[in-house]
Structures are given as C-alpha cells and as structure tokens.
Amino acid sequence: MKKKGPDLIGALFLLKRAAKHLVIGEAVFMTFGKLLSANLSPLASAALTSTIGFGLFLPVSLVQAAQFEIAAVTPAIWGLLVYTGVGVTVFAVLLLNQAMAQIPAGSSAVFSALMPVSAVVLSYAALHEPIHWYHLVGILFVLAGILSISRKKTSVAGEGQQKPVSL
C-alpha cells in the first residue's frame, strides 16, 4: 500500500537544492547590485530591479490573468497590493540599494540574512503568530553565521586570534 502525504526525503532533497540556488541567487543579486551602485543612483537601481522583475513575471502573469476574475478583488486587497508594490518593492529595494552604495557587498549580504529574523519577530509582534522552537533554532543559526562572517583570522602565520571586521 502506498503511503499518503509528502515524501520527507524527497522534500528535504528539494529544499537542499532550492536553498543552494537561493543562496547563489542572493549572492549574484548582491554582487551585481554593488557593481550597479557605482554607476547608478539607488532610485535608478531600484527602478531597474523592478523593471527586470516585471519582465520576468509578465509571461506567467498573462497565463494566470486569463483564468483570473479581477472583479472579485476587494478594495482591501488592492490596498495591500499597492502597499506591497510601493512599501516592500520600491521603498525596501531603494534602502537596500542605498546601503549597497555605501558598504561592501559582503556586508550588505550579511545584513540581508536578517530578513527572515525580522519576519519572525514582526510576525510575532504585529500578527501575534507563535514563535516555535525551530524559529529560534533558525534565528540562532543566522546570528551565528553573521557572527562568524563578521570576524576574520589575522593573516599572520601561527596566530589564531580573531579580529572583528567592521560591518
């Protein structure tokens, strides 16, 4: 008899592969963002990011639009959509691009690792969602990763002391 439900091993395999690609994608995004910040203003960089995202999502959106009833969307949902477009996309990317223009790409990547931590904390504070043990484990991993990245070994041979790196 076949078991019902998701295959845990398969799900973990997919999660591992997706995580690797997400990390690579984030690294590419931060690196190219840093390269662009030398030639573009943060606003122009945010506009370019949004335009590229629009172009990438447009084909899939057109397919879904054929099956979507736009009249069913309430004014509250339209408001959330505008908030997401302006607040999350424009304002957050603008701030990220401003930061990347002023700090090294590696440092801005470290700070972007705090996004899931802030999502957990804000979900708890604003939406009263519970924080589970696995959230705390994830937060500890993120903080440990940031701590390990923010420290570097001295280049003197035989000396194993850690010196902090300014972020």
Number of strands: 2
Strand line-up across the major sheet? 1-2
Q: How much of the polypeptide forms β-strand, as a percent range? A: under 5%
How many individual helices? Answer: 6
Q: Into how many domains do the coordinates divide?
A: 2
- The gyration radius over C-alpha positions equals 20 Å
Structural class: mainly alpha
Largest sheet: 2 strands, antiparallel
Alpha carbon gap, first and last residue = 56 Å
Q: State the helical fraction.
A: over 70%
Task: Report mean pLDDT, rounded to a whole number.
Answer: 77
How does the overall form come out from the CA principal axes? Answer: globular
> In terms of per-residue confidence, which ranges show pLDDT below 50 for 5 or more consecutive residues?
153-158
Order of helices and strands: HHHHHHEE
Domain EamA: 26-150
Subcellular location: Cell membrane
Organism: Paenibacillus mucilaginosus 3016
Transmembrane segments: 43-64, 76-96, 108-127, 133-150
How would you describe this structure to a colleague?
The chain is mostly helical. It has two domains: 23-103, no CATH class; 113-153 and 162-167, no CATH class. The chain has six helices and two strands; from the N terminus they run ααααααββ. A hairpin with an 8-residue loop joins β1 (151-153) and β2. α1 (8-37) crosses α3 (75-102) and α2 (42-65) runs antiparallel to α3. The radius of gyration is 20 Å and the shape is globular. It starts with 7 loop residues before the first helix and ends with a strand. Residues 153-158 have low confidence and may be disordered. Its main location: membrane. It is a multi-pass membrane protein. It is found in: Cell membrane. Belongs to the EamA transporter family.
